[in-house]
C-alpha cells in the first residue's frame, strides 16, 4: 500500500514531442528484424492483473515508454470510506521523460478514470478515439485540467510512431462504442493488447471487430498477446448486444404503462436500442441521472447516438405525456444509493417517482458486491407495485467481454508466442492459462503476473525479470494516498464496536485528578441502555487511577495504558465487545 | 427497530402442559365444520416474510397459539458489528400463557437459531424431529439452557393436539434431512405450512416428499397454504441432490491428488455423498471445521449419516496417507474469514494447508453478500496451485428450495383457498402471487404480508386486520437489542470518515482555557500525513474559543457547537471528509 501524497506532484521533465501520427499508413510489408544486440522490451502492468479494475499497462523499449490505459477501481466494502482506488504510478513519475503517451482503449472508468490523478503528477500526451476522448474531456474539465491536457484523437486506422515504437489499432466490440485494441510494433516483436473486447457478429453500430487486422498480425508474427480474461470461465460465446434489443421490443409490445429502463450510462449501444425501440412504439424518451445525461450528450454530439428529432423530452415534460408514450432511461442499475433509479424507487427523486403499474427494466447484472443493493431496489419497486423486468426473469443484459470461444478465435488468429491474461483475478488468469494451453501455447509462455512485475522479452524468451514500485493508492475525498492500512484498520475497528473516549484532567505536579474521568461513546451501545455500563466503567477508571496515585505515577503512557486496560477488560466482560478505547489526559 | 433489552426477561407464566401427542392417529374422515360464532384464526409472521431469514410464524386460535420455527438472520454488511438478528418476540412474551409450543420444521439456523434467545424470555415446549432436536440440543447446551428445556421429539407420522388445534406433519425434501411441513387443523379450517421444501424424486435418503398426505389435505380442503417462495423466480424444477454426487464421482475418477470439499455443515446428504464417493474410490475422509465436526457427530449418532467402518480419520492422520487416499470435508464454502477452508487457503489453519496440486471442490453457491469472500478464497486456492472446482465451472451445488414447477404441483395438490408466500423478499412474494394467480387463486386471496401483520381468517374470508409489535432485534456480543439505529448510524459514520475528539479544560468561573484544545483522531487521516492538518485545526479551535471568551460564554452546549462547527467546516474544506467530531469540555 502506498501512502505517498498526491498533492505535491513531482516536477515532470517535459515529455519529448511524439513524432506525429499518420492516417492509413500502409502496413510495412517486411517483418521487423528481431534485433540481437538491442535491449529487450518490457511489459509492466501497473494495474488490472490479478484484479478487475484500474487497468494500466506499461510497454517499455529502451528510452521509450507507452502506457495503455489509466483506470480506477471502485473500492469494495472492505475499503471503508474510500471513494476510488488508483494505480501507484511512482514508476511513471520516475521515468516521465521516457513516456511517449498514454493510449486509451475505450472510455470506461476502469480505463480512463485515473487520468485526472495521473495528469496532476505527469504531463504526457493522451491518445484515444473520438468518443473516448469526449468522455476524457468531460472528466478533465470537471477536474480543471483541460488547459494543459495534450489530447490526440485517433481512429482505428491510424498508425502512430513514437520513438522506436509503432502503434496500430484495431476496432473491437465492447459495451461502449469506439473501443480499440492496440498493436505495438517493437524492435523485438509485435505486442497485441486486446483492450476489453467481445466479438459481436451483429453489433448495434454494425462495426464488427476487425478480424482482418488480427489475421495480418498473426501472419506477421505476434510476440505477445495481452488478452481480456474477465469471462474466460464462460463456455461458448457472449451473446450479441442485439439480443437485449429483442427483450426491449417484447416488453414494449405488451406494455401500456410508463417504461423506465436503468442501465450503465456508458453503454451507448444499449441506450441506442432503447431509443430505437421507443421510436418503434411511439414513445418519447427522458434521460435521467447525471452520468446518463452526460453520456447521452457527448455521444449525440460526437455522432455515436442517433436520436430522431423530437424524441428526447425534458424530465418535466414526462408528466404531461400519456403513460404509453413515456420511456425514461436512467442510472441506478447497480442499486447505488445516490443514483436516480434508487431515489425514484424510494420517492427521493426530485422529479420522478415510480408509480404502481410502471414497468421497470433493470438492464444490467449486478457487479460483484452490488447484489444486495440491486435486490433492495428491485424489492422497493415491487412494493410500489411496479412490474420489474430483471436478469433473473428476462434477457436484459449481455456482457461486454469475450467468452471462451471468442478468446480461442483470437488466439487462433494471432497465434502469439507468449500470452498474458489481463482484466482478471488470479482465477481468471489461471483459467486463461489452461485454455491457452489447450490451444498449443506452452504453459511457461502464458504469464500470470502481478502488478509491478517486469516481464522482459528478447528474441529468445520472455520472463518476469524483476519488479517496480507499484500498488494501489486510495482516494478519499480530496486526499490521494493519505488513507492507508492504519487508517482503514481503525475504521474497521470503529465500525465493529465503536469508540469510547475517557478524559481526565490531572494536576501535573502531583497527579491529583482535577476533573473527570469522563466517558463519551459513539457506536458502542445505545446510550439509554448503557447508562449503568458507562457509569460503572467510570468508577472503575477512577478506582484504577486512585490506586495508581499512591504510586505517584504521572507518566502519561502509564496512565493511558492503565485506563485502556481497565476499560477494555470491563467492557469485554460486560458486552463481549472491544470498542476502541481512547484515553486522553489533560495536565494543568 | 426494537431496542428492548433481552437481558431482563419478562417473567413468563407457566405454559399449559400440551395435551400430548399420539402416533399414527387416523385422520378424521369428516371435515371440520366451519364454526360461525367462534373466533377466527390468525396467522402472524414474526419473521421470514419480506426477507429471507429469521423465520417465525404464529398461528393463533382463541386461547391457543402455536409457533412455527424460531430462526436467526445473518446480518448484512450494512449492520456493522452485529452478530445476529432475531425476531422481536414481544407478542409472544405478552401472550406466553397461550403458547402451546414451538414447532420446528428443520434444523437450519434460520429456523432454530433464535431458540436460545427465545427460551431466555419464555419457557415453552419445543417440538421437532430427531435430527432437528439433535441440533437444538447442541445449541441449547452451548448456551447453558438444556436444564429447563422442554424438548419433544416427533416424527412425520405423529399427530399432536394442543388446545383447540391439531397438528399433523409431512416429510419434505430439503438441504438438511428430517425436514417437515406442518398442517394445523383449526376449527376454522386447515392451515398448511410447507416448511422449506423441494421435491426430490431421487433423494439421497430415498425419503420422497409425502405427496399422499398433501393430496389428502387437498381433499379435506385447505384454508391457507403458507409456502416457501425463495426460488419462485426459477422456472422448471430444482435438480436432485444426487446430481451433485455425479459431479463428485467424475472429479474423484480423474483425480490422484488430495481432494478437499467445502460445503454447508448442515447438508448431511451432501456429506453422505462425499463419504459414498470416497468409499467408492478407496479414500478416507477427515472432517474439519467446528460446525462440520458437530453435525457429522450428531448425524452419525442419530443415524442420519452412514459411515463405513474405518472411513473417518483424524485430521492428524491425513499427512500419513498417500494423497490419493485423502478426502477432507470442511466448512468455509462461503469464504467466511474464520472458517477452515479460508484458513487452509491462507496457510492459517492449525493442521491443514492447501498444497499445489490439491483439488478443492467448493460445493455451494455464495449466499447473496458473500460473493466477494468466496471469490477471494477461490483466488487464494488458485494462487497456491490448487485445482478448484466451483459453481462457475461444474455442477457442484443444487438448491434446497422448490422452483416454479414444484410450487405449482404443491398448489395443485392442496388447492388452497388462500396462500401466503414466506421465506422470500417482496419480489419473491410478488412473483409467487403472479404464479399462484395463474393457478386460479384470486389475487386478493394471495396475501403478501409484512412482519407483525395479523392475517385473520373466518369461514368467509381472510385478510390483514391489524398488526402486533414485531421487528428485528440485533445481537452484538452479549447484548441483545442494545444496538439500535442510532448506534448503527454512528458506526457507519465512523466507518466512513473516522472520528476526531477535541478536548479542552476550562475554568468554570470565567471560561478561561486551562488546558488544550487537544485533538485526537482515529480512522480519519494517516497521522504522519496529517500533522499539519490537526495542528492547524487546533489553532482554529483555540481562535474560535478565544473570540468566544470575550462574550463570556461558559454554556457547554454553545462551546461544544462552536468547536464542532469550526472543525467540521475546516476538515471538509481541507479533505472533503466529515469525521464525527466529538468536543469534550472539562471544567475545573
From TrEMBL, chains A, B:
Native source species: Heliophilum fasciatum
Binding site for Ca(2+): 81, 83, 476
Active site per database record: 228 (proton donor), 401 (proton acceptor)
Residues of the Metallo-beta-lactamase domain: 53-248
GO biological process: rRNA processing
GO molecular function annotation: 5'-3' RNA exonuclease activity; RNA binding; RNA endonuclease activity; zinc ion binding
Keywords: Calcium, Cytoplasm, Endonuclease, Exonuclease, Hydrolase, Metal-binding, Nuclease, RNA-binding, rRNA processing, Zinc
Function recorded in the entry: An RNase that has 5'-3' exonuclease and possibly endonuclease activity. Involved in maturation of rRNA and in some organisms also mRNA maturation and/or decay.
Residues annotated for Zn(2+) binding in this entry: 106, 108, 110-111, 174, 196, 423
Subunit structure: Homodimer, may be a subunit of the RNA degradosome.
Protein name, UniProt field: Ribonuclease J
Region (Disordered) residue spans: 1-39
Co-factor: note: Binds 2 Zn(2+) ions per subunit. It is not clear if Zn(2+) or Mg(2+) is physiologically important.
Family of this protein: Belongs to the metallo-beta-lactamase superfamily. RNA-metabolizing metallo-beta-lactamase-like family. Bacterial RNase J subfamily.
Residue stretches of biased makeup (Basic residues): 16-30
GO cellular component term of the entry, any: cytoplasm
Enzyme Commission identifier(s): 3.1.-.-
Pfam families tied to this protein: Lactamase_B, RMMBL, RNase_J_b_CASP, RNase_J_C
SMART domains, sorted: Lactamase_B
Annotated localization: Cytoplasm
UniProt binding sites for substrate: 265-267, 397-401
Cofactor entry: Zn(2+); Ca(2+)
Amino acid at each position: 500500500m502506498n501512502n505517498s501524497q498526491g498533492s505535491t506532484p513531482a516536477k515532470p521533465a517535459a515529455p519529448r514531442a511524439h513524432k506525429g501520427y499518420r492516417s492509413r499508413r500502409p502496413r510495412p510489408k517486411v517483418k521487423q528484424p528481431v534485433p540481437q544486440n538491442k535491449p529487450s522490451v518490457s511489459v509492466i502492468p501497473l494495474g488490472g492483473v490479478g484484479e478487475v479494475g484500474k487497468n494500466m499497462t506499461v510497454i517499455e523499449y529502451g528510452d521509450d515508454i507507452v502506457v495503455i490505459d489509466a483506470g480506477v477501481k471502485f473500492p469494495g466494502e472492505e475499503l471503508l470510506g474510500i471513494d476510488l482506488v488508483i494505480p501507484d504510478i511512482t514508476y511513471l513519475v520516475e521515468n516521465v521523460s521516457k513516456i511517449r503517451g498514454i493510449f486509451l482503449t475505450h472510455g470506461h472508468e476502469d480505463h480512463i478514470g485515473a487520468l485526472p490523478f495521473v495528469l496532476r503528477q505527469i504531463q504526457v500526451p493522451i491518445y484515444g478515439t473520438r468518443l473516448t476522448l469526449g468522455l476524457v474531456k468531460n472528466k478533465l474539465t470537471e477536474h480543471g485540467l483541460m488547459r494543459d491536457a495534450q489530447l490526440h484523437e485517433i481512429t482505428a486506422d491510424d498508425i502512430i510512431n513514437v520513438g522506436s515504437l509503432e502503434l496500430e489499432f484495431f476496432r473491437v466490440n465492447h459495451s461502449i462504442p469506439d473501443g480499440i485494441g492496440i498493436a505495438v510494433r517493437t524492435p523485438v516483436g509485435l505486442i497485441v493488447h486486446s483492450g476489453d473486447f467481445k466479438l459481436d457478429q451483429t453489433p448495434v453500430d454494425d462495426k464488427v471487430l476487425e478480424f482482418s487486422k488480427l489475421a495480418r498480425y498473426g501472419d506477421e508474427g505476434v510476440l505477445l498477446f495481452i488478452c481480456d480474461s474477465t469471462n474466460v470461465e464462460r463456455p461458448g460465446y457472449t451473446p450479441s448486444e442485439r439480443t437485449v434489443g429483442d427483450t426491449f421490443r417484447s416488453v414494449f409490445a405488451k406494455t401500456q404503462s410508463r417504461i423506465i429502463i436503468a442501465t450503465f450510462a456508458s453503454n451507448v449501444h444499449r441506450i441506442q436500442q432503447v431509443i430505437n425501440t421507443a421510436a418503434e412504439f411511439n414513445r418519447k424518451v427522458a434521460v435521467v441521472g447525471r452520468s446518463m445525461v452526460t453520456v447521452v450528450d457527448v455521444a449525440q454530439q460526437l455522432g455515436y447516438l442517433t436520436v430522431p428529432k423530437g424524441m428526447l423530452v425534458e424530465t418535466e415534460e414526462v408528466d404531461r405525456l400519456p403513460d404509453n408514450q413515456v420511456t425514461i432511461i436512467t442510472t441506478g442499475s447497480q442499486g447505488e444509493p445516490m443514483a436516480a433509479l434508487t431515489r425514484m424507487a424510494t420517492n427521493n427523486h426530485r422529479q420522478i417517482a415510480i408509480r404502481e403499474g410502471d414497468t421497470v427494466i433493470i438492464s444490467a447484472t449486478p457487479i460483484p458486491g452490488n447484489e444486495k443493493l440491486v435486490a433492495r431496489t428491485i424489492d422497493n419497486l415491487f412494493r410500489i407495485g411496479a412490474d420489474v423486468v430483471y436478469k433473473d426473469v428476462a434477457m436484459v443484459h449481455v456482457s461486454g467481454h469475450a467468452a471462451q470461444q471468442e478468446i480461442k478465435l483470437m488466439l487462433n488468429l494471432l497465434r502469439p508466442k507468449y500470452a498474458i491474461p489481463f482484466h482478471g483475478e488470479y482465477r481468471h488468469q489461471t483459467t486463461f492459462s489452461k485454455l491457452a494451453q489447450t490451444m498449443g501455447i506452452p504453459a511457461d509462455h502464458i504469464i500470470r503476473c502481478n502488478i509491478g512485475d517486469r516481464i522482459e522479452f528478447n528474441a529468445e524468451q520472455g520472463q518476469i525479470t524483476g519488479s517496480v514500485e507499484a500498488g494501489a493508492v486510495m482516494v478519499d475525498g480530496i486526499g490521494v494516498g493519505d488513507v492507508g492500512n492504519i487508517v482503514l484498520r481503525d475504521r474497521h475497528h470503529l465500525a465493529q464496536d465503536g469508540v469510547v473516549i475517557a478524559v481526565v484532567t490531572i494536576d501535573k505536579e502531583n497527579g491529583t485528578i482535577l476533573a473527570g474521568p469522563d466517558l463519551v461513546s459513539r457506536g458502542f451501545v445505545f446510550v439509554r441502555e448503557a447508562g449503568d455500563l458507562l457509569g460503572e466503567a467510570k468508577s472503575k477508571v477512577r478506582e484504577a487511577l486512585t490506586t495508581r496515585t499512591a504510586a505517584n505515577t504521572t507518566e502519561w503512557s502509564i496512565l493511558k495504558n492503565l485506563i485502556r486496560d481497565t476499560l477494555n477488560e470491563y467492557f469485554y466482560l460486560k458486552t463481549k465487545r472491544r470498542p476502541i478505547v481512547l484515553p486522553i489526559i489533560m495536565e494543568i
